[in-house]
Amino acid sequence: MRTGSCLCGKVRYTIKAEPAAARLCWCRDCQRLASNGTVNAIFPSESIEVRGVVAEYVKTADSGNQVTRRFCPACGSQLFADSTGRLGLTVVRVGTLDDPSSIKPSANIWSASAPPWACMDSELERVERGPVPPAPKKA
């Protein structure tokens, strides 16, 4: 089980599953959210219990999928994202976990969008654009 929260603590969550995947994303949307790449883990949606109110923003991503990003309306922390390209799976921003070191990304994705100064671990797989979505794992 993993737990996490937003910066101000008004939104807390519990995850009762292992991630289907964990990746460092360099798409332009993630760069705009974090001024850098974002480390994201993908979990079965039903395994995540959220306490507190989240706001959401929907946008069409470069992949063509509709992405609903959920964040704390008080402090603005980006917490979750759901995509029409990964039904039943939810992205969790690894930095919001109480123990972010419990997850290690396996790849840099959308690396073609990364700025030249981006620090990418050469031991991680490098995917120029979007990867194939992972299959949902049971909670």
Automatic annotation (TrEMBL):
Domain CENP-V/GFA: 2-118
Assigned protein family: Belongs to the Gfa family.
PANTHER family: CENP-V_GFA DOMAIN-CONTAINING PROTEIN-RELATED, GFA DOMAIN-CONTAINING PROTEIN
Matching Pfam families: GFA
Species, as recorded: Usitatibacter palustris
Keywords of the record: Lyase, Metal-binding, Zinc
Protein known as: CENP-V/GFA domain-containing protein
GO molecular function, one term: carbon-sulfur lyase activity
